[in-house]
Amino acid sequence: MPDIFISEEKKEPEKAVTESTPVEKEVKEILGKTLIKKEVKSLIASYLRNPKGVNFEIKEKQEKIELLLRMHPITNVKWILISIIMIIAPVVLKSFPILDFLPGNYQFIVILGWYLIVTSFVFESFLTWYFNVYIITDERIIDVDFYNLIYKDISTAEVERIQDVSYRMGGVVRTLFNYGDVFIQTAAEKPNFEFLAVPKPDKVVKLLQDLMIQEKQEAIEGRVR
Amino acid sequence: MGNIIFPNFPTWGIAKAFVLFGMAMYVIFGFVMVRQVKLMTDTLQLGFESMIKIFSYAHLLFTIAVFIFALIIL
Predict the structure, then answer these.
(1) Residue A124 at interface with chain B, using a CB cutoff of 8 Å
(2) Interface A:B, Cβ pairs < 8 A
(3) Of chain A's two ends, which shows fewer C-beta atoms within 10 Å, N or C?
């Protein structure tokens, strides 16, 4: 007698390809943490060799960023300390009747306004540090400065126009944290470039000297871009 | 509300006007800051533009909120 109904063999559901084993999960977690750490590190880094994802307004297509510099993070300690004092000041001053002559609602607005000023101060200080950068590409050096609120000053000089490079490091803090000032004399429109309080000034000077030699070689070989 | 020497002098009314004027100035400052961040992020792309922009807008919202709050409770 022919079978009228044959039940299908039960198949075990295939494991999803995307499902990962505990070991894989652990690896992913570690990788994720490392990536986050790297991102945070690059956020506060002040010496970035061959940085990725960095671009600037006047960058040329073939230009390659060799080094991105900003002031050493330790230089931020001053405004961070001031901010902490500003944050805790209303709490400390609560025990002194300074604002007692004001009605309650005015006192509240004064404190809110104070924290508004603190927020602005912190944000402004961070922006000033974060966006005032020095860039060294394979073709030129660029000094990006932001003054006050809406003024910016971008100076550039071709590497081949650099005449002299020197650096200065002195004092306990600078020696301890290995940062100093780099001075660059050029034959460009702006004769002096100062990279202030940058980390590893010796390495910066070495890189600039290497680039100068490279440019000279290119000029001799006629490979000028 | 007046003071002892001039009972009809609107001391707190003038104080409120000054506070609100200061807060209004601060709102303008908040806008300037947003503009500054835009200028900075247009000039340099360092990888954290969105976060910084969000913070600048949050700061602006904070200034506006404080202004409105002062307008209501004073």
Answers:
(1) yes
(2) 83
(3) N
Is the CB of B46 less than 8 angstroms away from the CB of A54? yes
- For residue B15, give the chain A residue with the closest CA: A106
What's the complex ipTM? 0.84
pLDDT one-digit tens code per residue, A91-134: 888 888 777 787 888 888 888 999 999 999 999 999 999 999 99
Half-sphere exposure of residue A214: CA atoms within 13 angstroms, side-chain side: 13
For residue A195, the tally of other CB atoms under 10 A from its CB is 24
Residue pair A218/A182 in contact (Cβ under 8 Å)? The answer is no
Which residue among A53, A57, A150 sits closest to B35, beta carbon to beta carbon? Answer: A150
- Spatial distance between the Cα atoms of A171 and B6, rounded to a whole number of angstroms: 61
pTM attached to this predicted model? 0.79
Q: What separation in angstroms does the CA of B35 have from each of A121, B64, B66?
A: 16, 16, 20
For residue B56, the chain A residue with the least C-alpha distance is A123
Taking an 8 Å cut-off on Cβ atoms, the answer to whether A116 and B42 are in contact is: no
Q: Which SS3 state, helix, strand or coil, does residue A196 take?
A: strand
Q: How far is CA A15 from CA A18, A21, A23, A43, B6, in A?
A: 9, 11, 16, 40, 85
